[in-house]
Amino acid sequence: MKSIHTSHGKLALPAFFPDATRAVVRAVDSTDISQTKTPGVLVNTLHLLSEVGEPTIKAYGSVHKFMNWNGHSISDSGGFQVYSLAKAKGQKAAISNEGVTFTLEGKKFLLTPELSIAYQFTLGTDIMVVLDDFTAPEDTPEMALKTVERTLHWAKRSKEEYKKQLRHYRQSVSPKLIAVVQGGAFPEARLACIQGLLKIGFDGFGYGGWPISEDGTFDYKTAELIAKNTPSNYLLYGLGIGKPDDIVGCVKLGYTLFDCVLPTRDGRHGRLYVYNADSIEAIDVTQSGFYSYIALPKEKYRSTKEPVSNACDCYTCTNFSLGYLNHLFKIKDTLAYRLATIHNLRFYSILMENCSSLST
């Protein structure tokens, strides 16, 4: 699949969506994002509706209008954030067939599959993700099957709510609906999840769960199992997959959508991604070690007059030197975070351009 159409136009695939958790990609604005040729952003359903509020988003008409973004968008279900927030605070989200009960800012909330979809329609995003029951890395095969059972139960309810919401939908192109494949590292559980989701019917599948193997490497085996058992007309979404070499590997398997906090978070910490090439034309993402990192705060860059990379045409690389960026990070000026983020976002859009020939 080389492209899809959304209410915001044609989306070339594969595509990487940086995290705009609270309707902002930190340190940059919508114009900056667009100029890096980044096609879309991922917004966080839970954070937006708890911090901004449904009435406010409705007043604007969509999250696009709220943040002045004309590109494509993905919204997550909010489920993973519930688990993450609970874990960070030493709490435990209460999970039942009804939904997920959790505490946020001292208030108790119940997130159901229906509410998650309804909230995402309020946001007006182009690609929506259904609520799923996360299979933890430490789960046993029996526990994994239980998460699959609940994931399928929630997926069916999500699809019904999606069809209900479409009756009042005014855009010419319906949002894509992505279901999440759970089951951990257990093939039988993953296959059961895929088969159950196919009976319900979706526009694509997401690689759910924790994608890192026990040895700390990316779990290509599970990624491949999902890809091989997914119809060719389905989107394959690598949820949270963001290391450049992992993205390349997944594109070869058929994955077309990716999101991750890595490029923007790393940029704000002075870690810049660079291609090991002399020009954009010389980039070869099929070669081992096709990229490396620059740690901007290091003293050795203090007087460097060269740009971050000759294999990049971003605003940062065409206007500023490594020495100047080094200075900005030393004095902790906010311009440092903006320029570094711009560069990393362009690195990823160039990565997607180079991966287009690898996709099936």
TrEMBL record:
Tree of life domain: Bacteria
Gene3D superfamilies: Queuine tRNA-ribosyltransferase-like
Signal peptide limits: none
Ranges for domain tRNA-guanine(15) transglycosylase-like: 3-354
A GO term, aspect molecular function: metal ion binding
GO BP of this protein: tRNA modification
KW Metal-binding (keyword) present: yes
Keywords per UniProt: Metal-binding
Cited InterPro entries: TGT-like_sf, tRNA_ribo_trans-like
Name of the protein in question: tRNA-guanine(15) transglycosylase-like domain-containing protein
Protein's organism: Candidatus Woesebacteria bacterium RIFCSPHIGHO2_01_FULL_41_10
